[in-house]
Specification:
The protein is of the alpha+beta class. The chain has helices spanning 2-30, 37-70, 76-84, 108-114, 117-137, 161-182, 219-234, 242-245, 282-299, 303-316, 321-335, and strands at residues 93-105, 141-146, 149-156, 192-208, 211-217, 238-241, 251-260, 268-276, 345-347.
């Protein structure tokens, strides 16, 4: 745009010079007088200024349209970054403290086989509208979307309890939004698994050549994804790391064990998020207390005691997935004890 303005200015100047030479020639040849002041010092500058303003307005309109289009794919701050510096975009990025929420649909492959691509696209569009709303409500940003899964983040310059609370509340609200959504779709159910974790992440543009994507990378992201998958084994909806729930009050949560997730070098203590503590009834709280006692007995390798207490938890809530998981594990460990040096860590070989 700057180059076009320079060309325009040169063109106007050249045309004005030619007009002046032509007027001088006609005056010398036959005494004909052509106006000089108004065309050269009024009309030409006004015409040029008008063209510049029009060019600016069109350019600004075009930029706003591009920004609006980009905002559907990347966060606003990335759009601002692109507007300021397109050349060095591949080198942009920074280390931040963040909370990651990873969610996906259980049984998506089977669902996709039963629907046409257009039907599946329409369904997932409505599903993501429902599940993105809680993320936005609690200040998160959806940064990655693939098939049936999405990744959302909350970021800050340093560790922040408020940020972790927002991510936990969003996770619970995503689960609730899915329940409401499933009630509006005939003969379809999209059970959703959610994992949340917090820690240091690299946030920036990753890629090479002519393709880059904006998003977070690092162990925090991988761990959130692994915990999302752990829901499949425990029969749970929302799992959170001890790091993200530490010092977060007001939530009904319970530890469900210490796991060595696939691809991880260190075990992680995992909690299940069940809802608001204020909204929880006595039955739910009692179930959590019994489960905590049962998990303590399990860690002590008191298999019979643990089985009895996990069975009590199931009696209170038949759909208690973690209690069912540990009932089977107690029977297995009683037949094949993990050994005296066992520290309560459960290793998983699959995602």
């Amino acid at each position: 745009r700057v180059s076009s303005i320079i060309v325009g200015a040169a063109t106007v100047t050249g045309m004005s010079a030619l007009y002046l030479l032509g007027a001088e020639y006609r005056f010398a040849a036959d005494g004909t007088w052509y106006p000089i002041v108004i065309p050269l010092f009024t009309q030409s500058p006004l015409a040029f200024a008008g063209a510049v303003l029009w060019n600016y307005a069109e350019t600004n309109k075009e930029r706003q349209q591009i920004r609006k289009a980009l905002a559907y794919y990347v966060p606003d701050e990335v759009v601002d970054q692109l507007a300021k510096n397109m050349i060095d975009i591949k080198n942009s990025g920074s280390m931040v403290y963040g909370a990651c929420l990873f969610a996906d649909v259980a049984g998506y492959t089977t669902l996709s086989e039963k629907m046409s691509p257009q039907q599946l696209s329409d369904l997932m569009h409505k599903y993501f509208e429902a599940t993105f709303a809680p993320v936005k409500k609690h200040g998160g940003i959806v940064v990655n979307l693939k098939g049936d899964s999405f990744l959302a983040i909350w970021k800050a310059a340093r560790a922040d309890d408020g940020l972790r609370r927002q991510a936990c509340l969003a996770a619970l609200d995503v689960a609730e939004a899915v329940h409401r959504f499933n009630g509006t779709v005939d003969n379809l159910n999209l059970p959703t698994r959610v994992g949340v974790h917090s820690g240091q992440i690299f946030l920036g543009n990753i890629g090479a050549g002519d393709h880059y994507e904006y998003g977070p990378t690092g162990d925090t992201v991988n761990t959130a994804s692994r915990m999302d998958g752990l829901n499949k084994y425990l029969g749970t909806e929302v799992l959170a790391s001890e790091e993200i729930v530490d010092r977060i009050d007001g939530l009904l949560k319970r530890e469900v064990g210490k796991f060595m997730l696939k691809g991880k070098a260190e075990p992680i203590v995992v909690h299940e998020l069940l809802g608001s503590l204020e909204a929880a009834d006595d039955k739910q709280k009692k179930s959590c207390d019994i489960f905590a006692d049962a998990l303590g007995a399990f860690k002590r390798q008191a298999w019979d005691e643990a089985k009895e207490k996990f069975a009590r938890a199931v009696a209170i809530r038949e759909t208690d997935g973690p209690a069912h998981f540990y009932l089977k594990l107690c029977a297995e460990y009683k037949s094949h004890p993990p050994g005296e040096s066992w520290d309560g860590v459960i290793a998983l070989d699959e995602k």
